[in-house]
Amino acid sequence: MTENNVTNEKLFKNVEIDAGFGEQIESRIARFESRKYDWNALKFQADYNPVYRRAQVRYLGTGAAGVSSDMNVVAAENFTFSTMCLPSGCEGPMHVHHDVEEVFFVYKGTIKLFLEDGDKRYTTILKERDLVSVPAGIYRGLNNIGQEEALMFVMLGSGKPQIPTYPDYHPLSKIKRDI
User: Fold this and answer.
1) What are the distances in angstroms from CA 65 to CA 11, 35, 56, 94, 112?
2) Any bridge partners for residue 76, and if so which?
3) Are 90 and 54 in contact (CB under 8 A)?
4) pLDDT tens digit string along 124-169?
5) What is the DSSP letter of 155?
6) How many other CB atoms are there within 10 angstroms of residue 122's CB atom?
7) Which domains are assigned to the chain?
8) Under the phi-then-psi rule, with left for phi > 0, alpha for psi from -120 to 50, and beta for the rest, what region is 21?
9) CA distance linking residue 115 with residue 123, whole number of Å
10) 56-114 residue pLDDT tens
């Protein structure tokens, strides 16, 4: 008869912990206490219009915001992961990633999502714990329509995604950016 009360604690009780393996794993952990809100990652947008003010907190890779390096992140292999803090009334402008899928998970707040593919357009409301996967090549933008800041998890499907572009009709498409 098999014992059915096996737990992780019991399996690891009186087992020698490998320090080298532990160091390897610790190098792959990004702890919140060592993260900083980066209000400058997309500052060029907020300088153009304060409605675009938002902060990125990077965990895995630097994402596609144009931050070239961050020694405080876990190195990305196959995707990136960050959080985005979006103040009430602020927005992420319409943009496209031609090379990767982008995932938004709304952890806190209410977001209105705008999608555009050629002449097709769609909007939807994302609430807490809703997720959307936006395929490469589709323009996306979002607004925090709630009364409080929104917090989203953002994943991009590449360890080093390309910098996004803006639709030709959007004023940010005309801004020359130093990266």
Assistant:
1) 43, 16, 8, 14, 21
2) none
3) yes
4) 999 999 999 999 999 999 999 999 999 999 999 999 898 899 999 9
5) E
6) 10
7) 16-174 (2.60.120.10)
8) alpha
9) 6
10) 999 998 888 878 788 889 989 899 999 999 999 999 999 999 999 999 999 999 999 99
